[in-house]
Input
Amino acid sequence: MSVDEALRMVLLLPEVDQRQHGKDIGFRVRDKAFAYLCAPDLTMLVKASREDTAALVEDDPRAYKKARASGRIGWVQVRLRKAHEDELGDLITEAWRMTAPPLIVARADLPLC
Output
């Protein structure tokens, strides 16, 4: 998976803003972050439930690593070169769904994860 492919996945989602955050690019919906891209390192941080994070890390520790957690929400680090496109697409979409206001999610024409 390339940086350009990951960017394309994120920017296809409704109402996503892209902001520079140090060396990273942060992605937000209605001013709430759901993903960060570190292009030089070829990694992403993506918001995920603790359960999803644990499952991803257990299934493919070369591609996924637990980054941090707070409450029921955590962040998973994704190594883009090791990640599968479909799995990363689902992860990014679910992170957006967890972050976007319900009305925006209801209006979005996105496949269910």
